[in-house]
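for the recovery benchmark. tokens below, seq after
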């Protein structure tokens, strides 16, 4: 993302319907508001669990890499993270800085690669991850796309739909929203 601000891609026409034995053939419509995070959508699905027998979980992940060494400073979900990186193949100082602020950002950083040249950022509850690049000397990439200084990107999460009662279900709706969703039916108790 070279300039401007990106949203998480959720649009007004991303509503979807869950059809199950419990819901009947009409199903239950889940209304989606533009900009809803995967967490918010999962919460909306889970509020209808009694009517559908289907629940949802969400998770947001993205990768962050640097193109050069230097002082890195950016906002992660509104909280400033800053670290001195002397080698782009060792991002451990940046991982430590991000993880020190997990309480404010709800994002966990994990070093990946050998040596750790990529950071995997995870929001376990499916909240959006917003990154605003504030650094002027070091460029960063998010999922391989360059984020220029003073620009931001919002990464939306993935949804997983499940029925733990081993009930079949169908989800009909926005391919853009549900294209990356996974569906599962497992036996066991509801969460």
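predicted aa per position
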């Amino acid at each position: 993302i070279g300039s401007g601000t990106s949203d998480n891609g959720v649009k007004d026409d991303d509503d979807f319907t869950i059809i199950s034995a419990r819901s009947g053939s009409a199903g239950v419509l889940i209304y989606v508001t533009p900009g809803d995070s995967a967490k918010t959508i999962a919460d909306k699905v889970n509020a209808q669990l009694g009517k559908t027998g289907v629940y949802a979980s969400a998770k947001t992940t993205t990768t962050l890499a640097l193109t050069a060494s230097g002082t890195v400073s950016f906002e992660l979900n509104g909280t400033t993270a800053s670290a001195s990186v002397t080698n782009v193949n060792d991002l451990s100082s940046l991982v430590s800085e991000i993880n020190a602020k997990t309480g404010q950002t709800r994002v966990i950083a994990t070093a990946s690669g050998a040596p750790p040249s990529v950071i995997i950022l995870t929001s376990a509850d499916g909240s959006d991850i917003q990154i605003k690049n504030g650094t002027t000397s070091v460029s960063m990439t998010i999922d391989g796309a360059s984020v220029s200084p003073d620009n931001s990107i919002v990464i939306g999460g993935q949804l997983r739909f499940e029925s733990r009662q081993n009930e079949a279900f169908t989800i009909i709706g926005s391919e853009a929203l549900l294209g990356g969703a996974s569906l599962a039916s497992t036996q066991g108790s509801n969460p």
